[in-house]
Amino acid sequence: MERLSQRRTDPLTGERYHTTFRPAPTPEIQARLRQNPKDEEENIKKRLDIYYSNLKALEGFYQDAFYVNADQDPYVIFEFIESCIIKPLPCKNI
Questions:
Q1: Where is this region: Disordered (predicted)?
Q2: Domain presence at residue 35
């Protein structure tokens, strides 16, 4: 929620900022930043509700899919995906 709801865009330059992770460099830029309506908390919650309501159906349809932990080094992620495609590892269903 924090990552999405704190995104901002400079309407003059199109540059994107985040109020916590990448704040605007000057007060002048910070004053003109705008938030996209889709990034408001209420709208994010609606999108998450839709996602979770469809999740089970998607898991049933894509039974051969595998889980990828994307909080790793890109090379490690690539190697994992490649190993699943070339020689699938046995895994338990979640």
A1: 1-23
A2: yes
* C-alpha dist (Å) from residue 48 to 8, 9, 38, 41, 84: 20, 22, 12, 10, 28
Examine residue 8 and state whether it is found in any structural domain, yes or no. yes
For the stretch 15-43, pLDDT in tens is: 999 999 999 999 999 999 999 999 999 99
Best CA proximity match to 41, nearest among 4, 88, 70: 4
For residue 57, the enclosing domain spans 1-63
Q: Give the residues across from 8 on adjacent strands.
A: 17
- Name the residue type at position 75: Y
Nearest alpha-carbon partner for 4 in 42, 33, 51: 42
Q: Measured in Å, how far apart are the chain's first and last C-alpha atoms?
A: 24
**Nearest Cα to 93, choosing from 71, 55, 53, 65?**
65
Indicate the SS3 state at residue 42.
helix
